[in-house]
Amino acid sequence: MSIESNELLALRDLREINLAIKDLENQQSVVSKKFKLGIRLLQREASMTEGHLDDGCVMQGCESWNVRHEKLKNLIDDPNLENIPDDTTV
Predict the structure, then answer these.
(1) Comparison of pLDDT for 49 and 57, the residue scoring more
(2) I need a surface site. Which of 26, 35, 58, 87 has the fewest CB within 10 A?
(3) How far, in Å, CA of 2 to CA of 5, rounded?
(4) By the 8 A CB rule, do 85 and 44 touch?
(5) Per the domain annotation, does 9 fall within a domain?
(6) Is 13 part of any domain?
(7) CA–CA separation, 10 vs 45, rounded Å?
(8) pLDDT given for residue 78 in this prediction
């Protein structure tokens, strides 16, 4: 094998490594954004519940924990990446 051929193989290998790094960085960014979304959703839900308590206007059957969306219930019960809803906002 010639030196030029080895250099080409090394450059190709380096390119593949850099592409893999970029791919992992992109995945990390997406996962980080999704976790931040989950945290914001839970913080908003906690604020709503605290607001109901502060106002003293918790009506029977209308409590936020009784009318909560199923996905949010799942996130509270099992806080992991799979239970965080996808962000569909633009």
Answers:
(1) 49
(2) 26
(3) 5
(4) no
(5) yes
(6) yes
(7) 53
(8) 93
Q: What does DSSP assign to residue 60?
A: T
Tokens 């190709």 label which residue?
A: 12
pLDDT digits (tens, 9 = 90+) for 16-51: 999 988 998 999 998 999 999 999 999 998 998 888
Q: Distance (Å, rounded) from C-alpha 20 to C-alpha 48? A: 42
Phi, psi dihedrals of residue 26, rounded to the nearest 5°: -65, -45
Range of the structural domain that residue 44 is part of: 3-83
The H or E element that residue 75 is part of is helix 70-77
Which pLDDT score, from 0 to 100, does residue 58 have? 62
Say how many Å lie between the first and final Cα of the chain, rounded: 52
pTM of the model: 0.72
**Number of domains making up the chain:** 1
Q: Is there a domain that residue 90 lies in?
A: no
